[in-house]
Every structure is written in structure tokens, then in C-alpha cells.
Design brief:
The chain is mainly alpha-helical. Helix content is 37%, strand content 5%. The protein has a single domain, classed as Di-copper center containing domain from catechol oxidase (di-copper center containing domain from catechol oxidase, Orthogonal Bundle), CATH 1.10.1280. It comes from Phyllosticta capitalensis. Keywords: Copper, Metal-binding, Signal.
Length: 347
Amino acid sequence: MAPLSAKVALLGLLAAPHVAAASDYWSERCTTINQRKSWAALTDDEKSEYIRAEKCLMESDPINDNDSSYINNEYGKIQNIWDQFHYTHIVEGNYIHYTGQFLPWHRYYVRVHEMLLQTQCNYTGAHPYWDETGDTESYQGHMGDSPIWDATTGFGGNGTGTDRGSDCVATGPFANISLHMSSHNKTDYCLTRAWSQSDLNGANSSNVQECFDYANYTDAWSCYNGHPHAAGHGGTGGLMLDPVDSPGDPMFFLHHAWLDMEYWKWQLADYPARLTDMGGNNVMAEESLEIAGLSQVGDDVLDYDGDPGNTTTLNHNLYMRGNMAPNVTVGDVMELNGTVICAEYIY
């Protein structure tokens, strides 16, 4: 297996003035490039260690928890670091989907997750990804046979339990977790799943290849946001079907690491030109808002997004709520093995 590695040094991308401190923050944390492997390629010990660290985030006190209005917010009460991740995606939900920043923002979100696993929970590995294309081909019609769903060395099975509602996950390490953040006025609710093989098939090689073949970011991003992105969410089902609340399921991060890998492959296909290829709208189209059940983002956000209009640029600010990590720009995360993302994918 070979890493997806860059061919030249980092580009001198434009950055907003406040990003200098963020660059220092990440430079200190990028001492070794994280070699991200598929879940299936990990040893049982490596899988166990990742699961341990993930549960540690669910049990660790929130970072920077001195703001009571942040801890007690309209989506619930933040009780641990996992809730902070959940809150961040919920509060940014109508801004990071169906927009140009979709792929860069989620790339950064996965990186912050990886970093906190390492710094808060002593995880020594890199962030794994779910090889969804491999699973659609290896376990066609029997997605539950994939080792990623193993109750002992994986993320547990399908939703079957009914102690707190239908489709509660009843097996594996996350069977008994309580989720505290929700855009639907729910508290202390279970993790749900409802597998769909037909949805997971959206990650098949022909759909991924279709996106890879687009020559510019705006077309490629729109394509990746379609079948490939929907595959992991719909295939897992349950909470993962909710476009905003989905990070409550730990599978979310492996799914988006996989999608990020496919995006990086696309960038490398015309490198380094695609390190500066960015575009797309900054606000969701009304039809997309209606589908997702969201309201339009306001000027309180757009006034600080770093762009002069409704087109996403390299100067666009990527917000990471709750001070889990400093905000950066799209330009800061375009190079996968730069000091911010600090990663390579092994495939």
C-alpha cells in the first residue's frame, strides 16, 4: 500500500490575519504525519485502542467549559467532549452543507477529532476511515458481515433495541451511550441505526469515479455531496440519516474520513493546481434548506465568513465552535499533509 503523498512544498496560501496563531497552534502538533488506514487494515489491538479513545471523549469533561451559555445551549447541555463535537456540527448545520465549504470544513472537523483523541485520550494512532467502496464490493447484499460492525472489535451492529425507542443499538461498545445534543429537543437518547444496503451501494466505484472525473471543484464537490456522501449516512441509517445530528454516531467520523480521502485523490489528480481550486455558494439554496429542514444562515455569520460575496474562496473561515481548536481558513486545509491536517491516507 502506498500513501497519498504531496509532490511539492506547501503553497503560500492567503490567510486572514487571525490565522497566524492558528498556524502556530497546528505546527506544534504536527510532528509526524498521521498515516490514516482503513478500519479493515487495522489490527485488533489498533481497533480496540481507537474504540477506547472514542469512548474516552464521551467520558471526558468539556474543554473550555467556563461559558455557561455555551454549556447550556438551545440544543441541550454539553457534558463531555463528544457533546462538544455534536454541538459544533448542529449549530453549523445550515452553513456547512450544500455549500462550497462542505468538503474543507469536514476535513478540518475530522482533523480536530483526530487531534483530541490524541491529546485528550492518549490515542497514539491516526484517524481510520471506513472503506465504503470496498464494503459495497466485498459484502454485496450483506453489509453486516463487514468487520466494521463487529460487536467486539468494531462499532456494534444494527439498531434492534427498544429500551429507549426503536432502532437503538444494542450490541458493541456504543450500545449504552446517552446522547445529549439534538436539534429536535431530545435529551439523553440512544444511538440508533437502521441499515440500508441499497443506500450504501451509492459508494460503488462507478459513482466515485464519476465525481473523480470532474475537472473543477464546483462540479466535483456537488457530485461528492451526492451519492458518495449519502451512502455512508443512508447505509448506516438511524441517527446517521439526520444531516445535522449525525455526528452522534461514531461512524460519522470514519465515513467523513473516507469521503475526505476521495476528495484528496481528486486534488492529487491535478496537483498542485487543485490546491487553489475552490468555489460554490456560501449559503444553502432554498430548495436544499427545505429538504434538510433548516433555516437560512444570518448576517451574524456571513459578516465574518471571510468572503466578500456568496462564493466560497480560500479565505473562507472554517468555524470550530466551543474553542476545541482555533478557526482556520479553507486555504489552510487544502494541503492534506500540511501542518494543519497533518495526514496521509493509506489505501
